[in-house]
Specification:
- The protein is of the alpha+beta class.
- It has one domain: Trna Endonuclease, Chain: A, domain 1 (3-Layer(aba) Sandwich).
- Helices cover 32% and strands 37% of the residues.
- The chain has two helices and five strands, in the order H-E-E-E-H-E-E.
- It has helices at residues 3-20, 69-86, and strands at 24-31, 36-43, 46-55, 91-100, 105-109.
- A hairpin with a 2-residue loop joins strand 2 (36-43) and strand 3.
Length: 111
């Protein structure tokens, strides 16, 4: 299985998880020339921007270890871009989601 298809499978798994928690999926793999967001979802009056990281093993660290300060800056830029493009006026939250080899999902809020 290629890295791309594994990543897409992890994103789809997280999207299903978010749906089970009451979210509506707004965009999957939203991209522009300058930025991308794995999952954009909405729950009531809040929009969530989720970065998904899959790790088959923790030998090289957790998925969250790969959401570096630089990646967090890119995520904020992408979220702000999406908000402006969609004229969103309500609350927004940036999330990180880790999927492991057992398909266990862990989600954290990115500050």
């Amino acid at each position: 299985m290629s890295t791309t298809s594994t990543g897409r499978d992890a994103e789809a798994h997280v999207a299903e998880y978010l749906k089970s928690k009451g979210h509506t999926i707004v965009d999957l793999n939203w991209r522009t020339r300058w930025c991308e967001i794995d999952i954009v979802s909405q729950d009531k009056k809040c929009v969530y921007f989720t970065e998904v990281k899959y790790r088959s093993s923790s030998d090289w660290g957790s998925g969250f270890d790969y959401i570096t300060k630089k990646k967090q800056q890119q995520m904020r830029f992408a979220a702000e871009f999406w908000i402006a493009q969609n004229k969103w006026k309500k609350e927004s939250v940036i999330l990180g989601a880790e999927v492991d080899a057992d398909q266990k999902i862990t989600i954290i809020e990115i500050s």
